[in-house]
Amino acid sequence: MLVTRFDPFKQFRDLEKDFYKYPSNEGVSGFVPVVNTREGEFAYHIDVDLPGVKKDDIKVDIHKGVLTISGERKIKEEVKEEDYYKVETSFGKFSRSFTLPDNADVENIEASGKDGVLEIIVPKLSEEKHKKIIKIK
Questions:
Q1: pLDDT at res. 26
Q2: Is it the case that residue 57 has pLDDT exceeding 80?
Q3: Euclidean distance between CA atoms 50 and 25, whole angstroms
Q4: SS3 content of the chain, % helix, strand, coil (to 5)
Q5: CB 100 within 8 Å of CB 66
Q6: CA–CA separation, 24 vs 30, rounded Å?
Q7: Which of 18, 47, 97, 126 could form a cystine bridge with 68, CB 3.0-4.6 A?
């Protein structure tokens, strides 16, 4: 009979590992771009690593307060040799979505791409535009 020592925190460590897990490649069709987000004083910034993806193959849209970045990284020409065949680059369709906060100015969102990185800037509404005063009748 195998005796195992009881570890009350094992469940929490396993949960933490799953929480911080890097998106895995699911074969050759599992491209998941890496995203960095940060909040500045006047805007939210979303940086998406999309090396090898053309601007025409990227779509950014907003629907009901959710910003969605989608597109496709197309396969490059394959190199096949007699004694080996290996492809480490992942490719395929991708989609990442972000729920925008209430103070996001969705009318003035900007997106630009440079050196394989898509940068999306979501300006914040000023307090005056975000706040509504209701008069009592």
A1: 44
A2: yes
A3: 15
A4: 15, 35, 50
A5: yes
A6: 8
A7: 97
